[in-house]
Design a protein that fits this description.
Blueprint: E1 2-3, H1 5-32, H2 40-57, E2 59-62, H3 68-84, E3 89-97, H4 101-105, E4 112-118, E5 129-131, E6 137-140, E7 143-147, E8 152-156, E9 159-163, E10 168-178, E11 188-194, E12 212-225, E13 230-235, H5 238-249, E14 276-280, E15 315-317, E16 325-328, H6 336-342, E17 355-365, E18 377-381, E19 384-388, H7 391-406, E20 409-420, E21 429-436, E22 454-456, E23 461-464, H8 472-475, E24 481-494, E25 497-506, E26 509-513, H9 516-531, E27 535-545, E28 548-555, H10 563-567
Length: about 575
């Protein structure tokens, strides 16, 4: 039956109290039964009551979401695994501003003293709740944020409340943080400082155990609402933080809910607008499965489908930015045969659940499309034309895709293709989802080599380059920029024995090299590309100070790269 937010929060709190109360009663009775065997009977009875009561009180949410809200929630769910892979993630518990000079000197020159603990980003649900959709969750000890399609649920210990998305404010800013713990693999290191610093930033000689501490660049994400929500998070990847902010802000406006009061806030104004349906777990209800994609209609005769876009050509080239966004391809209904051909070896797509495959899609500019307003972008998978970028998206991507195509490159992105025939008697259904970078991140920096055989290596861990101190004057003009570097296998003599290393060059100039350990992790990628006559290119960032410069290269370890990537390498002219 329809329910408002207040009712949902009340049901969750009742279920939580039951779980907690009878759970402790069972534990106490079981403990006493060791001394008084007769207490074994009350322990069993308490357990039965707890399980039966839990089954009756557990809140079940069944969503049937459609229109723009479906796309928004799918974007959030599909992007969550990549977002959760952020290595450094914390919730700030307390932050104290340091006013006295002595306090700053004894805390590595920091302006604020921060207490924080680790976060996790699961999709599993707590015991009191069940739903037919995956729920992206932020978990911090006994506190959680659950991002449902219609509201944000807040769990504080054993207390539940909710926040309307229309009241949610998300802000992101870059911060400098003196890291005393382990350095996240994907973090950006800005420099170093001393645990006990003098007023000029140098080491305080009065302390014998003074140690160097890295200064990191993190992103601070603040989630707040007028109803009392206040979470401050730190993430080691700025692009992850901005993806999260963009996604939450992009949610379509919906009627306001009635937000339940948070633990330390006043009651929000009541504006009921039922959007979810709740059922009692003991009663029969719909199966808890994710709703299938919207049906694809068959094309009608004379629908103007005669236009044929140019075929993809050129060597595959992935965009520069990381694929934080998802785009649903439009027009699959006109390409049923092409999509069905992708599943020729997977007949299970004709079964009720359909079939899904991970693919590489190629984006091809198609300015001649009569319905594309001059900026249409066609999508091909394994040479089959499966649709177009949506009109509202293609205008942003068309310029960068056109530039890369004109240079003889085939712009390649990850894709997921789903298809089912006669799904519940509804006919052929299909969906093609692209995982892409933002349009502004499609272009390449000026340092991208013009060599026609350049091969962009897969994005991955952050590896620090050594030996930059010998190239400070050359690197300082690049400080604060994302750059493209080339990697080269070299052999040096050490203790009379040959040692294989990876050298890093920027605009053709050597700027350092990897350590032997890092070279062993990345070397197989470099040698595989060089073996076919290619030039290995990797993403990097340069951070500079007046007297030093650091280069961090972002490249996957060879063991983390799928075999398909190696198999796709072909001899280059």
């Amino acid at each position: 039956m329809p329910t408002g937010a207040d009712e949902l929060a009340a049901q969750l709190n009742r279920a939580q109290r039951w779980i907690t109360g009878w759970g402790w009663a069972t534990v106490v009775c079981a403990f006493v039964s060791f001394a008084v065997p007769l207490f074994f009977i009350p322990a069993v009875a308490a357990l039965v009551v707890a399980l039966v009561g839990f089954a009756r009180r557990r809140v079940v949410l069944h969503y049937e979401v459609d229109s723009d809200l479906t796309k928004w929630f799918n974007d959030l769910v599909t992007g969550w695994p990549a977002f959760a892979r952020t290595d450094g993630k914390w919730r700030v518990q307390t932050s104290t501003h340091l006013n006295r000079t002595h306090d700053r000197k004894t805390n590595a020159g920091a302006g604020d003293l921060v207490s924080r603990h680790d976060l996790s980003f699961p999709t599993r649900l707590p015991l009191a709740l069940n739903a037919n959709v995956e729920v992206p969750t932020v978990q911090a000890k006994r506190h959680s944020l659950l991002f449902l399609p219609d509201r944000l649920l807040v769990k504080s210990g054993g207390r539940w409340s909710d926040v309307d998305y229309n009241h949610l404010d998300v802000t992101v800013r870059r911060i400098r943080f003196v890291e005393e713990g382990s350095i996240p693999r994907d973090g950006v290191r800005l420099g170093e400082t001393w645990q006990y610093a003098n007023v000029k930033g140098g080491p305080d000689r009065r302390f014998k155990n003074n140690r160097r501490l890295p200064v990191m660049s993190y992103s601070e994400v603040t989630l707040s609402s007028s109803g009392g929500l206040g979470w401050s998070l730190q993430l080691s990847r700025h692009e992850a933080a901005t993806w999260w902010q963009r996604t939450l802000r992009a949610r379509p406006r919906t009627p306001l809910l009635t937000s339940a009061r948070l633990a330390d806030a006043a009651v929000s104004s009541a504006l009921p607008a039922p959007t979810a349906a709740t059922t009692n777990a003991a009663e029969p209800g719909p199966p808890t499965i994710t709703a299938p994609p919207a049906p694809v209609r068959r094309p009608k005769s004379g629908a103007g489908n005669e236009h044929v876009p140019p075929d993809p050509a050129g060597r595959p080239l992935e965009p520069w930015g990381r694929p934080w966004s998802t785009i649903e391809v439009a027009g699959e209904s006109f390409h049923e045969k092409a999509i069905a051909a992708l599943f020729a070896g997977a007949p299970e797509y004709k079964e009720p659940g359909g079939s899904e495959s991970r693919e590489k899609a190629v984006l091809v500019p198609d300015p001649g499309n009569p319905h594309g307003a001059g900026h249409a972008v066609a999508v091909f998978v394994r040479g089959h034309h499966v649709g177009y970028l949506p009109h509202e998206k293609s205008a942003g991507y068309f310029p960068q895709v056109s530039v890369s195509t004109a240079r003889g490159c085939a712009v390649t992105v990850d894709a997921r293709v789903w298809a089912a025939e006669n799904y519940n008697g509804s006919g052929f259904r299909a969906r093609v989802t692209l995982f892409v970078a933002e349009a502004e991140d499609f272009g390449y920096p000026a340092s991208m080599p013009g060599d026609a055989n350049a091969v962009l290596l897969p994005f991955g861990n952050a590896f620090q380059v050594t030996g930059e101190e010998e190239h400070v004057d050359f690197l300082l003009p690049y400080a604060g920029q994302d750059v493209a570097v080339t990697l080269h296998g070299i052999t040096v003599e050490k203790a009379g024995k040959p040692l294989d290393l990876v050298q890093v060059r920027l605009d053709g100039e050597p700027v350092g090299r990897f350590t032997p350990a890092t070279s062993a992790k990345v070397g197989p990628l470099v040698s595989s590309v060089e073996r076919v006559g290619g030039l290995p290119v990797a993403r990097a960032a340069v951070v500079g100070e007046p007297t030093k410069a650091d280069v961090t290269v972002y490249v996957a370890r060879a063991r983390d790269v799928p075999q398909d990537w190696f198999d796709s390498l072909r001899p280059l002219a």
